[in-house]
Each structure stands twice: as structure tokens, then as C-alpha cells.
Amino acid sequence: MTSAQPELEAFPPTLREVLLRPRWLAMLALCLVVAGVFAWLGQWQLGRSINVNPQPPGATEEVLPIADVVEPGDYLPEPYVGQRVTATGMWIPDDFLVVGSRFNDDVEGYWVTGQLRIAETETPTSLAVAIGWAPTQEAAEAAVAELNAEAVSTAPIAVTGRLISDEGPVVPRRDADPQSMSRMSPPALLSHWHDIEGLDVYRPYLASEVAIGPLDDIASPAPPEGSTVNWLNIFYAIEWAVFAGFAFYLWYRLAKDAWEREVEEMEDAAAAASGAPPVS
After folding, report:
1. Alpha-carbon separation of residue 192 from 48, 181, 200, 213 (angstroms)
2. Between the CA of residue 212 and those of 218, 256, 275, what are the distances in Å?
3. Which residue, 54, 178, 194, 237, has most beta carbons within 10 Å?
4. In 3D, which of 217, 194, 233, 186 has the Cα closest to residue 70?
5. Cα(35)–Cα(240) distance, integer angstroms
6. C-beta of residue 129 within 8 angstroms of C-beta of residue 212
7. What separation in angstroms does the CA of 127 have from each of 84, 88, 145, 269?
8. What's the CA gap between 244 and 238, in Å, rounded?
9. Partners of 93 in the beta sheet?
10. Spatial separation of the C-alpha atoms in residues 161 and 220, rounded to whole Å
11. Tens-level pLDDT at each residue, the chain (280 residues)
12. Contact residues for 113 (Cβ-Cβ < 8 A; gap 6+)
């Protein structure tokens, strides 16, 4: 009498066996490439978080020629924000304008600004200058009228003050005068200036230390000493490290889900063969 050969029982694969399959090894290689890119980005961001050549204390208080700090059309480098500079030129008549929402020692008022045409440049070049502060709009407009009358002089003058980054224009409120300005923005001032054909303009503006005409001096204290550590860049570097780790977690999670599905399908098939209800 012969006996039937028992069927070999099929065992589900282990998670390790699934992870070592060519498909998931190829996915792991792709994750390594992605994580490597993220790691490089994190290292680059970390390298930018430490200023290895910081400005010495009090460097912004040294008066420099404006040409040594920034070129026309360029953004003001961060270490030079608030730098004291001197610029020589002539005022352009009828280009004295009023900018509102200006504070002097916590008192709101107005700035009177002017277009200073820089002397001895190859191409016409202008710098927006905040000339002085007035407590009311009426006082600021009276100062504009006086400055326009005096701006006919052709003798260059030297203006010393702090160089400050463009604040950017803002859309006025619906109930406000569309010609009014509440931000110190050279591009916005440029749209009101005269004689601008082929004109180069400095992106930052100059806050004059000494007021001209019937105006008060602008309160412009020295900027605080900056830190040598840029914590925002450090935060970004940490983010890139998290992204790199997530790439490996995603690979592991997808492979584990595939393994769990395969095990569940094998258990359902075995239950169906034995007549038992499928595993839920």
C-alpha cells in the first residue's frame, strides 16, 4: 500500500526577504540618491548660517563714500544696512516729495524727500534722500515749497546719513489720495521724478543726518550689532536632514505595506483552501 506524498506547506516571506528583493533594493538606491541631494543641500545651508567674516563692532558708524558700499541698481548688502555714507550731488527742483507714516522718537509725522543727482558719474545717477521730518503734512508741504525755491543752485553739496534698504511700495487704501506715499521706496519716488531719461537709481535710500530747511533732524540710531549665526539657515539645514530621513522612512513604509499585503493574501488563500473564512 502506498501513501500520498504530503503537500509542502508554503510559508509567507519575512520582511527582511521582501526588503532584499531587487525591486525594493532599486527603490533603496533611489532613496540614497535623493537623501544625498538633501544632505548636500543641508550642508550648503549650514555653511551659510555662520558668518565667518562679520563686520567689526561700530563698522556702520564709519562714514564711507556711497560708491564704496553699493552700486546703482544693486540691493544693499546686509552688513551695510544702516551704514553711514556720504554722497555729493545737486537737488533736482520740483522733485521734493512728502512721505507719510514716518516716526521720530515714537511721534508720527512726515518725511520730505528729494532727488539728489550724484556728481561726477559717467551716466546720470540719482539717490533718494530723506531730507528731514515734519510733524504735520502742512509743515512738510511748506518745506517742499521752500526747498523747491532754493534748489536752483548748481553748486554740489555733500549729504551724510544712513543708507537704508528700500521699503517697497504699497497700494494705498481706497479712501486715500492715490498720489500719497506711506513707504520710503525709491522706485515709487522715481515714478514722480522729472528728468529720468537714461537715469540710474540707487535701490536703497539715504536718511540724512542733518535736516535741510525748516525741518527736524531724522532720528536714525545705529543699527543693532548683528549676530554671526543665522538661525533661519540652521533651521533650513535641519529641515533638509528631516527630508533625507523621510526618504528612507518612505522606502521602509512602502516595502512593509507590500509585505503585509502579500502575507494577508497568502493567509486568505490558505483559509479558502481549507474552507475556513478569510482572515480580515
Report:
1. 39, 11, 15, 21
2. 11, 75, 100
3. 237
4. 186
5. 9
6. no
7. 14, 10, 20, 81
8. 10
9. none
10. 9
11. 444 444 445 678 888 888 899 999 999 999 999 999 999 999 888 887 776 566 667 788 899 999 999 999 999 988 888 999 999 999 998 999 999 999 998 899 999 999 999 988 889 999 999 999 999 999 999 999 998 887 666 678 999 999 999 998 776 666 556 667 888 999 999 999 988 999 999 999 999 999 988 899 999 888 876 666 777 888 888 999 999 999 999 999 999 999 999 888 888 888 887 766 655 5
12. 96, 97, 98, 99, 128, 129, 130, 131, 184, 189, 205
Q: 205-231 burial by CB neighbour count: b if 16+ within 10 A, else e? A: bbbbeebbbebeebebeeeeeeeeebe
Helix pair angle (22-47, 231-274), 10° resolution: 170
* CA angle (50, 51, 53) in 5-degree steps: 145
Distance CA 125, CA 89 (A): 9
What letter represents residue 91's amino acid?
Answer: W
CA nearest to 164, candidates 135, 122, 207, 134: 207
The total of other beta-carbon atoms located within 10 Å of residue 131's CB is: 26
